[in-house]
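Forum > Structural Biology > Help requests

Title: Can anyone predict the 3D structure of Probable DNA 3'-5' helicase RecG?

Hi all, first post here. I have the sequence for Probable DNA 3'-5' helicase RecG but no way to get a structure on my laptop. I'd be grateful if someone could post the structure tokens.
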Amino acid sequence: MMPEPSTVDTPLKKLVGEKTAKALASHLDLHTAGDLIYHFPRRYDERGEHTDIRSLDVGEQVTVLAQVQRTAVRPMRQRRGNLLEVTVGDGSGGVLTLTFFGNQAWRERELRPGRWGLFAGKVTEFRGKRQLNGPEYVLLGEGGEGEAAANEEVEEFAGALIPVYPAAAAVPTWVIARCVRVVLDTFTPPEDPLPATVRASRNLVGIDTALREIHRPSSKEELYRARRRLKWDEAFAVQLTLVQRKHRAAAWPAKPRPPRAGGLLDGFDARLPYELTPGQRTVGREVAADLATAHPMHRLLQGEVGSGKTVVALRAMLQVVDAGGQAALLAPTEVLAAQHYRGILDLLGPLAQAGELGASDDATRVELITGSLGAAARRRALAEVAEGRAGIVLGTHALLYEGVDFHDLGLVVVDEQHRFGVEQRDALRAKADQPPHVLVMTATPIPRTVAMTVYGDLEISTLSQLPQGRSPIASHVVPAAEKPAFLDRAWRRLREEVAAGHQAYVVCPRIGEGPSSEEEAPREDDSDRRPPLAVTEVAPLLAEGPLHGLRIGVLHGRLPADEKDAVMRSFAAGDLDVLVATTVVEVGVNVPNATVMIVLDADRFGVSQLHQLRGRVGRGSAAGLCLLVTEAMEGSPARERLDAVASTTDGFKLAELDLEQRREGDVLGATQSGRRSHLRLLSLLRDTDLIRDARAEAITLVEEDPELSRHPALAASVAALVDEERAEYLEKG
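Reply #1:
Sure, ran it for you. Structure tokens for Probable DNA 3'-5' helicase RecG below:
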């Protein structure tokens, strides 16, 4: 009797049995035949080729393809019975010891020298030797006692390429391979969602061929073709989603806000104490042209720390005010909102004093609305906004709450876009009668392919020049564990800067006891490490020790808002020598007199985060110095990451490094939704050409068929790969 055909929706328990299905569901979140078919191998081993045992990390859950070299049985010291030690090698000189406890003579006969097998377990170290304790394994090849079942399980390994799957201790790779074989034997593929014209023009194999070859490749060439087709599906789904969003947004009406000669913007340009960079002028023209159209601007402005994004945004805001509208700037923290407020008031001077003695004829008012405003001040500010007297409104997410009503909201500027959710941004948009123009700013440099894939529905402007007068920043790694004297020297160097009349930051990864949203999430390898250094613990130690006698302030996210603002004001005014802070200073804090930053436990921060942090120094005429203090040993991945940060101030190079070191699914929203990523094969760094081609095809297709109504299978495939939650994340960036 022929087994029933299976489809992507068939529950796994119907195909592989209840016990195995339960293990796949609980350990790998695989529930249907489609889930399993799209659980692609992580890599492919070749019999006779090594898997580089020397590169394995202690604590890592691994599967290695290796050959048995020798076996030895010795009595156990602490208890009765024998210990079987099996040494396996990978052909490169790397060896691994497998240890099995108890009297297992059958296993010694089975694991005889010369046999190849797949061995899975957690890497440990004993007396300097890498080992797997009691690993799961399956042997490859013919004959031998106890091997019939094993050979049945590894039938698909008869070819040269052996798939190794993302696995779990309870579900090793060969169990997954066996289940895949069972499913493929009955699998009826879905209708190929890709239009035949696209398949032909891009030389792509059919979906059925791709899914079969990626699991059971008949050759390296066929595997390459299968992977290319499945990568294309991922890239095409994302690009179609973004191009559709862009297409819909272009159809919305918006109120044009053209420039007005002799208005606020001209007055501001005339009083600027410095010249705009060529980049600021170019981007300014792009933004001005967008604002003058009857469709909402949707533009991303990216630029290095200190490249002058705020001035570009302020000029856009003034153009909107000149055209009779209002502009709102949404900042991620009260500290940053308050700083933008003070900075914009300073830049505008009498242009921000409408209704006051000595104000310019064209003046407007600037209001700050945050959660910590007192009741009377809040009522006054809300009236100014609702009646349209305040042309520029700054605030945190408090701007989104009911009760904040705009007279005519024409432009929304979002600072540090990645810190806001789609719902928050849409709530602010909804406060306008028509969709307002939107300008998104980020100081996190974005590699071209990431911009194309994550921000593909935004026009992108880049500021790459630094304004005149900005000083270079020197960065150095301070290896505190290897060379404690270097840390002493770092504190002396800080004192020297303070003695010369400058100020300093000391940054810690943690506030103190208890969780904090500012704190770096623990890395997987943090289990055996001491807790990260905390602001509330470090500040008193510095005050009593190496920084004794200096005026030290503390800043972190748990301080009351008025206290945070008071600390920042004191630091900006020069009343504090040293600010001990969390990453609350990462974005936008501007104190030109601060010349040195010491980052403690620097290996606990990401590459882009460190680049952002060091951008807080060297903002004036004096050179900046950033010292990255770490206990990470030379040659470790953490140390190499810090060495890379210290070696360059090119944020785009560092952004690519950051992307290489993170799981790329995270970039595309896998961690946002708490589910496994549906984008499994696409590499934003290595698949640049494929992403570019997919975008070109997506633009052509959406122009012909905006809602994909003539391609229902493709629309369903896109919805499956980029569900609504993930589509929102893509829009959010």
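The domain at 264-463 is CATH 3.40.50.300 (Rossmann fold). The mean pLDDT is 82.
Shout if anything looks off.
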